[in-house]
Hints:
CATH architecture: Aligned Prism
Strand content: over 45%
Number of domains: 1
CATH superfamily: Jacalin-like lectin domain
CATH topology: Vitelline Membrane Outer Layer Protein I, subunit A
CATH class: Mainly Beta
Number of strands: 19
Number of helices: 0
Structural class: mainly beta
Amino acid sequence: MKLLRIRKRNFGLALNLVLISSFAFSQQLHLSAQKAQLGEVHYSARVGGTVPSQGDTFLVQVLSKGDILRRIQVGVYQSGGSRVVQAIRFIVEDSVGKLQKILIGHADSYWKDEIDVPKGAELIGISGASGWWIDRIRFHFSDGSSSSDYGGGRGDTDFHLLLAQRDNKWKGRWLGVWGTHTDYLESLGLIFWPVE
């Protein structure tokens, strides 16, 4: 699993690659300006924050070949009656049956109950509401089910981001997420592998 952090520079974007393991190292990469082709990883538009981004951009590939997403957990920031999404944790079973946790955001969030991914189903999208940050999020699965809403009830804009479906087949496989965050999650997009 890979965690990529993007930082803005004067003349473009550079990526710092950090492997999630017992050690970490950095390597400079550059984003391609060319359009992705079939067979390459694709990135959806971001949904969420209704103001220009104030935070850092991240790319997290959660699934590799042979991995299965087992559970999702949402971390919420609560202050008075206000709640916003602060973090997401993906629990993945790798190809040898070992469970790994991939965290996006702050580990010290107030963690809600884990969402079990239905057996044989895959994550195919998200929906929710946002203002300055992602106020509320829901996860959608390939069997037609969805999670409860997590976060608060506010937000200026509703969003709905799903992989395409044609002839009752999903046209991609979800691999991870990208977006922006400060102390809270500002925006999220899907990383996916297109399928014809």
